[in-house]
Amino acid sequence: STAALIWNERIREKIINFIMNQSKEQRILNFVLQNAVRGDPCSVMDTIDKYCSQKEWAMNVGDEKGLILDKTVEEVSPSAALELGTYCGYSAVRIARLLKAGAHLLTVEFNPEFAAIAKQIIEFAGVQDKVKILEGPSEEIIPQLKKKYEVDTLDFVFLDHWKDKYTPDTILLQECNLLRKGSVLLADNIIVPGAPEFLNYIRNNPRFQCTNYPSHLEYMKVEDAMEKAVFLG
């Protein structure tokens, strides 16, 4: 089962962390610095995918669901994009490489260690001019976006943080008037680990039009999916 797979990964990860005295995320960063081409976002993404499919599983969006993310970003062509859950910066690099001139991505990360690693990966990929990492809890940062970070409205939002935050943060984005007619939300991992509350909320909300994209859990043959929700205003 998926639970067993991820459980095994976590146990194994703790043992390796102890032996090597570093985190898996530091190992991913080191692998990128040693093997990827500086200034080449695709090389950075491929290197992370290679590490996570061959060496240690990690919760990046991955290459398969990454194509759904790419397609959505290309369709929206956002000027202002928000990502909730930076992790190691994989999806931030993936989004940033597709942004048009003058567009920018704000990415929110609660874990300081992940934020520090993501910063290095984003810089190594050469997309740091398009990405700003905001460190802290999403429920504190979202209400600051307009005043502190000069966001008018968001064209695209990628939800990939704690699954129980998907619904409250989507509600918060609306309450803070950060969504406009046509704003697109894309949510990852709606089957594994799953976001049933979010699906229930978004699919039964007349203000959103939803599309489901079946896929697989990153680097595994386990079924997962992404959900796209267009804000109708």
Automatic annotation (TrEMBL):
EC number: 2.1.1.6
InterPro entries registered for this protein in UniProt: Catechol_O-MeTrfase_euk, SAM-dependent_MTases_sf, SAM_O-MeTrfase
Residues noted as binding substrate in the record, renumbered to the chain: K163, N189, E218
GO CC entries: axon; dendrite; membrane
Keyword Iron: no
Cofactor(s) it depends on: Mg(2+)
Cofactor: binding details: Binds 1 Mg(2+) ion per subunit.
Binding residues annotated for S-adenosyl-L-methionine, in chain numbering: V61, S91, E109, D160
GO annotation (BP), single: catecholamine catabolic process
GO molecular function annotation: catechol O-methyltransferase activity; magnesium ion binding
Residues bound to Mg(2+): D160, D188, N189
Keywords: Catecholamine metabolism, Magnesium, Metal-binding, Methyltransferase, Neurotransmitter degradation, S-adenosyl-L-methionine, Transferase
PANTHER family cross-referenced by the UniProt entry: CATECHOL O-METHYLTRANSFERASE (PTHR43836:SF3), CATECHOL O-METHYLTRANSFERASE 1-RELATED (PTHR43836)
CDD domains xref list: AdoMet_MTases (cd02440)
Family: Belongs to the class I-like SAM-binding methyltransferase superfamily. Cation-dependent O-methyltransferase family.
Protein name: catechol O-methyltransferase
Superkingdom: Eukaryota
Uppermost EC category: transferase
